[in-house]
Each structure stands twice: as C-alpha cells, then as structure tokens.
Amino acid sequence: MDKAKIFELLNKDLQDEHGAIIQYLNHAYGMGEGEMTCEIEAMARDEMRHLDWLAETIVELGGTPSLERGTMLMGGRSVADWMGNNVKLEEGAITQYQEHIKLIDDPKIKRLLQRILSDEEAHRGKFEHFVEKAQKKGAKDIRGSRQDKTAQTLNWGIEHEYTVILQYLLHSYMSPNEEAKEQLADQAINEMQHLGWLAEELVDGGGNPKIEHTKVDQSTKTADMLRADIKIEKEVTEVYEQAAKETEDPDLKKLLRRIRDNEIYHTEVFNDLLKEEEGK
Ligand SMILES: [Fe+2]
Ligand SMILES: [Fe+2]
Ligand SMILES: [Fe+2]
Fold this sequence. Notes:
Layout: H1 3-31, H2 35-60, H3 79-103, H4 107-137, H5 149-174, H6 178-204, H7 222-246, H8 250-278
Bound molecules: fe (ii) ion (3 copies).
C-alpha cells in the first residue's frame, strides 16, 4: 500500500477519534459531576491517546495530521439517548478499525490499530451498560438553554480554547524543535483544562456548551507557528480581562482571571521560544 493511502486511512481514524472526544466531553459536561461522568471522561482521555498515537504515526511517516472532525452523533435529549449514541459511535469505530487492520500491511501500524480496537471494544461494553443504567432513571431532558451575556462569554471562551487546543497540538506535531514541541503539547493540555472549566461553569449555570472552533493556524515553520500562537494569546488575554471586569459574579471573575493569568504565561513561554528560534 502506498503512503498516500495509509495517510488517508489513518487520518480517517484520527478524524473519528476527534469526533468521539468532543461527543464524550459534551456528554460529560452536560451530565455534571458523578460516577458515570468520571468514566466518560476517562474514555474521552483514551480517545485523546488514540488521536495522539495516530497523529504521531502520520508525522513519523512524513504526513500531516488532519484537523477535520469526523463522525459525531449528537442528537437525543436524555442520558439514555446519549449513551445509545455512544454505543453506535463505538460500533462504527470497531468496524472501521477492523477494516483498516485488514487493509494495512505494515506490522507496526497493524499492531497500533489492534491496540486501539481493544479499547473501543471495552468502551462499547461500558456504554451498553450505561444505557441500561440511564434507562432505569428515566428519560429526562437535561439540556440547558441559558443564552444571556454570561453564557455567550463562556461559549466564546470554549470556542477559543478548542481552537488553540487544535492549533497547539498541530504545531507540536509538526515542529521539528524539540523544546517547542514539548511546550506546545503542555500548553495544549492547559487549554483543555480551560475548556473544561468554562464548560462546567456554563452547565452549572443552566447553559449548553457548543464545542465548535474557528480557524486554526497551519504555518509550517516553527517561528511562524509561534508568532501566530503569541498573537492569539495576546488577543484572548484582553478578552478574558475585559469579561472579568464586566461580570458581577465573583466566582466567574476569579475563574476568568485565573485563565487570563495562564494565557499570559503562555505568551511568555512562546516569546522565549520564538527568540531562540529567531537566533538560530
Ligand atoms: Fe478511539
Ligand atoms: Fe472508544
Ligand atoms: Fe486558554
């Protein structure tokens, strides 16, 4: 099989992992604290590891990881509906990995896909169990509907955080600079925390997180990547600062300032990396 075909198959898998992560996070945030939520978050983390392995494999072979989001099943209004969607999503993943394992000859990639497949089979079992559990509790509509200024600010933050998560991950995968690679991956994880904090705040207040992103910078040189990353950090720092000033909710103010301080730190880290990169 030629490389282009391998990239196509692995990127399809990667896109679907991306879709699964967002679908499960959406459910976890929407359901609020609890045992089931913890387990769903753990499965979302499994999917993040899958995404990471697939992206690294693609980069090692000289390809570019796709940023497109694959299949998602976001309908339904109750936990039982959602868990049913997750069973279907895992079934789709299982069939696809089985097909790709057959198609790909490279033993290392085959082994990796087999490894991921075993996780997906375990996930399917867990979600089947969750459907039963949720059905016992009844089909309550748990979607929030708050649309005021605070909800808009939080959804804006979620959109921003999701965008930089993808951007820093892509930059981390594509940069040959080892230090930049490591820092970008680290800060992407910090942005995932921000996304979680904002989504939880929104759901606690009766809102409904929309996990969508805006344009992701796709520079190919490390210095260009860092310039784009610094620019977006500076912009968002100002927005968070302004939003913190405007809100009268003291807890929200504290949260927005905490995130803002993290963003300032990111700008400084990226600035140092850029100086070193420019000095080369
Ligand atoms: Fe997965
Ligand atoms: Fe899965
Ligand atoms: Fe952030």
